[in-house]
Amino acid sequence: MMRTVEVLIVIIIITGAFMISSSFAVLPWPRQVSPINLRRLALTTMETLDTNHDLSRAGFDLSSQTWRDLQVALSASLPPNVLYNLTVYNVNSEASGTTLYAPLKSISNAADLGVTSDASSYLVASSNVTFDVTPEKIGERWGGGTLYILNCSDANGWWITGYTAQSLAEDVSRLLSSYFVKTITVQNTAQLGQILNGQALQGEIVQNAVIINTCGEAVPIPTAYCTTPYSNDSYAYYCYFLGQKVNQYNWTWASTVGYPFYYVSNTGSFPSDQNDWGIFGMTCVGAAGLNGFLRGINAEDYVKDDGWLTLGSPNPSSVMVQISSSAQDNANYYGIYPAQNQTATRALPSTVQSRYNLTATALVFDPADAGGKTWLAGATFVHRNSGGEIRGRLIPIGLTRSTDIRITALAVLSYYQPRLYRSEYSAYNTSRLMVLQLGLVGGV
Amino acid sequence: MTSAAIDHMVSITIFLAAILFFMNLFGQTIQTAVIYQQHRAVAVKCSDLLDTMLLSPGSPENWSVREDPIVGFGLQDPEFTQYQLSPFSLMRLTPSNGPPVYYPKTDMTYYNLTMDFGQSLYVPYTQIVNYSIASRLLGINGTYGFSLTVTPIVDVTVTPNVQPNLLTFSISAVGPGFPLAHAEVSYCFLTVDAQGQYPDYEIEYGNVTTDATGFASVVFSGFDASQVSHAFLAYAHLQGLTGMGYYMHELENENSVVPFVSNFETGEVLLAHSWDVHGGDNPALVHYNATFVVLNEDFRLGNMTLQNETMVGRLTHGLGNPYDCIIINTYTPGILIVTYRITGHQTGVVMMPWGINAMAFSVTFGGNLQNQEWVATDMRQVTVNNMAYQAKLALWSTQGYQVNG
Tell me, what's the ipTM? Predict the structure, then answer.
């Protein structure tokens, strides 16, 4: 009998254990097992109501009629078992940077949304406000800030097939002018002669300027420089002179495509000369042009040097280059998106750095190895003098023709890194936050 | 000694019975919890799958207007972001409503999405994405079944009230939860002009406002509805919600024109004689006049010039009499309006949407959810070319559960 009593006691204990465990093991409500995704439903409802910007307008028009219509539309678009509360908040920023949300108006179809409601927020902008971006001006911090675009009407270009120097100049101006204190379009070679002499064209600062040569492999030459000594060695001395000026004025010289300084162009001085491809008004300098420029920027004595520097015979003819990760970041920041992969046929070897006291910075393309050398298809070569002071820069875009002017623009911006000041969405009265909270009839 | 043995036997018997009983009780609780977990997993999958369908344009991204085979399923409009669906992707899903139609002159079967006489969409079987393909592309073939329903949020119904020399249209605009009160209703009243060999039409526009119950009415006095074929299109709009409804009245429906979508990429549409499709007793020559209209922002219908120079023609039934072909050379959603005439005032009008939203068609796509053990549902509000739709997905497991009891 005693054993039976013990078993009964055991049964009582197990029954108690079952009841206690059952009371803790509360199964979820069916609605919790298969819930409607109220957060998504709220977001998509607001997006639907804002299809024609009606919700945005309602955010800034708190009149009773507008919000009556909004409530009708909201009620009509949601299933009948869904409860809602739509609240619009004003978005303010304090001086400390803290964003404050102040409720302005609210509509609801229930006093209580229950315990399992969910909400989505939706930022609407005022139609009276334009959100814009103000770029920092290059040169504001260290002086200069002039952009010269060589748009010489009396000079022709090469390797810019499909474009004209004028159309490229317009594109450069559109892409870069907002980042400079002053943008000067150099209309002819005579004006180029002026700035080579250090004379401002429109009161701008000549020192520390950026010069973009839109003529591709050709470089404009003023008529006054079409004589000796500048014409020595097929105008290689003129390129040497340009290098000296870049050093003297601490310019940044950008060559947009191909072999830099390969031709000089002046339609008035070389009316019967052509580049062997039917483009008159230019004469070939050859490889000596770039060598001369580099000697000039490095403050060396002039010596004619015909040695071929870039890709192309006797070096490998071409390499495929890929846009660098830092340039990609800059592309995203400035909104300039050239193709990821490019063919380089005139990239400079990395060896020019040690030879001419240059440092390749702000690489647009990752270095590529070929023929036992490392090739830099797009970078800013910064020259430093013996005292470590920066004296001139060269941006040679060594890609094959035809030119993509966006790469030059990206190279310039990658080097100077001007900041972009964007309008604050939290500025007073420009944005409002709509919060739609949804619940289900029944509360849970 | 004997009593002790009996005591042991009784106690062990009771103990074993109790153990079995409690094992069953605990087992039921655990089994129920497992089933709940499985149901919960289906519900989560349902929400994810719905977003996958609605937030991806598929691959190729403009598959709905290309002949290339689809390799990724998605319904988002590739030109937009968020929950904006392509009106043409929805046209290429196998509709669950309406039996297929075989057209002998092309020797093809067409899937049929018909609302009423003259309001139909026939899409060739070869250009349709069926449930099996969609399941495979979504990676749920053999594991889950689904049914996707895309319906306009605002249901606009137009009901005529015909009296001698007086035609009244009652318009009702309601959403799933509430009538669309105080909404503006822009309407187009289209009347077929029986004059001339190829019947043209005239359009009269107007606006009314719904009352607090979502009703409005439009009265055309002096109009004899029994003598003129006509169509009435109503667009109700309020705070971003737009809905559409229509009514058509034809004096002749035994012989009519049936438009078939032939090719989405080229925009080719075939115009067939109705006798060749549906049969009938008194086949007759049909003169037709086809126009393509798009809805402008002011809710007026704008004519779009099609590739064909002439959009009029004649259709004869039977073998040896081919169908006509027109090209809709645009991917802007609109309506193909075909007015036709047999003799005298025996006229009619048929319409075909080019883009599912153009005539507020709804789409039900997928498997049959009847008799499934447990079905999870989720929904999103979407827009199809600015018209508000609700997308609802029902999902169930096809692998089965050990259902308790």
Answer: 0.86
